[in-house]
Amino acid sequence: MLDKKIAILNNLLFQIKQCIPHKDKSNPIVSKANVGWQLDHTLKIINRVCESLEQSNPKYYKKDFNAIRSILFLFCYIPRDRVKAPKVVIPPDLISTIDLQAQLNDAKKHLNNIELLDKNAHFKHFIFGMLPKIKTLRFLEIHTKHHLKIVNDILSK
């Protein structure tokens, strides 16, 4: 199961890499933010969340029930324009190709490290609550697909 989740995320990282040359494209009908913003934000989330997993202490993980999480994770869906991104994962005004590639390389390294982490390594999300490693990977999958869908909508319209 873990290998499958990591493979899915690696595939999504490949898709992000394919979109980097289009970083300056935008479509205000789809999103106020351009492709570069979507990619940078997504990579920041992956890297920050993985760092949080790596730094967590598994003995402090507590299982909790979260109805919103259960529904959104079931449907692999995050609604658009409902939540404002925390400051720490908001991209800078100028997004360079070099920075996107560096963040992409960091994300790949983090994904390789996740397999070695305890199953109770965790990340606390401000809406979804405490997520153990496997649910954190599911969150990263859903979040990354959400932003790649926005990128694809920008590029196709």
UniProtKB/TrEMBL annotation:
Top-level division of the source organism's lineage: Bacteria
The protein, known as: DUF1569 domain-containing protein
Natural source organism: Flavivirga aquimarina
InterPro entries, per the entry: DinB/YfiT-like
